[in-house]
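Hi F.,

I've been meaning to write this up properly since the lab meeting, where we talked about keeping a consistent format for the predictions we share between groups. The idea is simple: the sequence comes first, exactly as it goes in, then the structure tokens exactly as they come out, then a line or two of notes. No screenshots and no reformatting. I'm using this chain as the first example so we have something concrete to point to.
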Amino acid sequence: MRKKLFIIILLNAAPIFAAQPAPKRQKGESGQPVAVAAGVAIMGKNNEELGRLDLKGEDPITHEPFDELIESNKKFLLARVETHQDGNRYVHYFDALEITRHIYGDRFFTRLNNPKVNPINRRPIDRIRYFVYNELVPQFEYLGSYRDFFPPHISTDLVKGFVNSARDILMAYRMRFHLAVLFYMGMGGVAKDYAQAEHYFTMANDPSILNEPEVNLAGNVNAASILRRISLIDWQKEAKLFLGTIYFTGGYGVIKNYSTAVQFLVEANRSPAPIGVRKEAQFYLGCVYFTGDNAVAKNYMVAKRFFTLANQPGAKQREAQLCLGIIHYVGGDGVVKNNATALQFLTEANQVDAPDHVRKEAQLCLGLIHHAGGDGIVKNNATAVQFLTEANHVGAPTHTQTQKEAQLCLGIIHYEGGDGVVKNNATALQFLVEANQTDDPQTQKDAQLHLGYIHYEGGDGIAKNYEQAAQFLNQEFPDATIEKQRDAKFYLGSMYYNGGNGIAKNYTTAVHFFTQLNSLHVPIERRSRAQLYLGIMHYKGGNGIVANTNEALQFFTSANHADAPIEVKREVQLYYALIYYKGSNGVVKNYGSAAHFFTQAKQLGAPDHVCKEAQLYLGIIHYEGGDGIVKNNATALQFLSQGVSCDSIEETRKAQLYLGIIHYEGSDGIVANNATALPFLTEANQVDASIQTQKKAQLHLGYIYYEGDNGIAKNYEQAAQFLRQGVSCDSIEEKRKAQFYLGCIYYEGGDGIAKNNDLAITYFTEAKKQGALVERQTFSLYYLGIIYYEGGNEIAKDYARAESYLIEAALDAPIEMQRGAQLYLGLIYHQGGPGVIKNNQQARYYLTQANQPGASIETQTRAQELLNDIRDN
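Output, unedited:
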């Protein structure tokens, strides 16, 4: 799962201005004034006693005793806060500085949306009055009310007019500040405009205002001046905070500038800034170093330090916890990646009091951690899905990218399955399609990568679609893991290797992708598979690749690595065997080596389809024999019977062909049976067989119909039809045999074929040429001799030709045929005729030979008759 900087989502949320400090602990409310009779009197505007304050009592916010506050700060002011609840009036006393900071921390929310509240009971404040301590009496004397120092809200439309005309410095300052906030937030009828906000915040941040007589404390202990100065200092710190966030986020007319942002945020973080301002400044300083830019280098260690400081009760605590969780999840820049530590921070950030956008981000990260596991966290996809489903709930527009990230992760988890989640490509597809609808290029590419995987694999109701898979996968994935990039290349290579499902087979393109995986840097499991496919393509050739057995052997040898997957090794043995079975490109055909590798493929536990292919070729090898393999039709029959149901229909037809041939030929304990052979050969002659398989099947079907037997009637017409189809086979020997049988059919005639000596001569002439068995050549010569002796069917008698063919046939023919040829030579010389002079001496010689043992009874009888005729005449 990729690592993403989630800070962008945080920046989309409007900052909480100058977060209020939460009290360290709260005292219980009494419903009565804190002052007691024994305390110091608190005098009202008309010098009436409003109550008494126990100086040993504590300020409710700082928990510091009032007498210590007075002793340490001669400018100490007391604030009397009045509230009501359930018909009762309550009074609380505070350090005026702290309560003012509290109110000012709430200022923009309370002024624009809600009333001010008392930090003790969270009730709306009815009235605040301020008192200065007179240690000479001693007593607290009335100074003024809240409204004396903080005039009521002035409408947005009038603010600009009052900014420059306000006579009271504090009021003018406050109006500038207020106006800046309105432009910053885009409230009060004005559009968000950071440039205008920056302008007014800069005015509010003018340090020269502190030198004005009304707020300059040099020799001036006027209580109003003290309060005004405190307020101005606090507001200037907040102005610096705002200016820092403006330059950090940029936009709305202001160019992002991290260097300037850091300057303002560092100033805002300096004492005596209110604690809320400091915490928020620390948070944004953390954000700056979390993201970094050209001016300020990303530094997780520094960011962690600021986020840790900001991780205190306040407005940005949950955001700080989120960022700390992300830093420990991602790791780097001196921070050690640790999912267990990240989990702790993210769990805190996911509390119900966290802003919704923070919870969504935390849920996303928690889902990622439970999906990945590690650092003591057990991988648990079921838990991850729960968090990611929460993160995927519809929220504000700023959460859109968080949703897309969650959808991406949900899609990947359902695609991969495991750890409590059932793999389901249909569910994964829905999430990934949603995740792909984003402007974030990295999320989009991750989604498209896995969409490609799903369309490649299919399943769970999703049809394989190589065309769509290729569209998704055929691009660069720079942010994906190397492993996933290699997966994409392998799937692309496989699609173009196999073809189908909308993609045309293209070996050239497949070689391009597989070659990228043929590197020592690629793990052996993936590399060996690529090498196997490269070997197969160079072995088979086609689709733009020239077949080259030597190159194929090199790829197969590389793929046959000791650490390669067993299924790769099995296929390599099979192709080794095929190479030695067929030979070519300098590789000598060797049935012994082929049989060895076919056997190896089986012994390595090859899958059924590989075993069947191996058995097929072992059957063919034992049928043909050679290279140390003894021809044995019985052994061949056993192998072929097991290999007849190959996955490849072409290979199945080849097995049927050889089964038919073996049953046709018999031998080695197999009884020849044309009736058994016929169905196998008929199946082998189907259109889905290879051309050569069909040709060989047609030849043997021709032989069977020529011969008849075993319940198969002779049928010269069918025999001639099959033999004419098969005569163009690759095997020259089979070609000569077919020509011989065709010669016999046209010489003999019958069964629907008219006797035709002219065609018989044509076929016998071809059948006697080189490539035919010697016996078949001799038979062809013998029949040519007889045809020219007999003549007929538009062939003139030609004793000279007949003599030539018969003399040649008599040299190497089987003994019975020799005697037959000698008989015909005796007849030619006894009778004399076209091209040959009568010569009884020569006739007597051949007829005497024809009458020797080895001749048929008919030949001997006819030879004796002719010898007697010569002797009598």
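Notes:
The chain has a mean pLDDT of 81.
The first strand starts at residue 40 and ends at 43.

If this format works for you, I'll send the rest the same way.

G.
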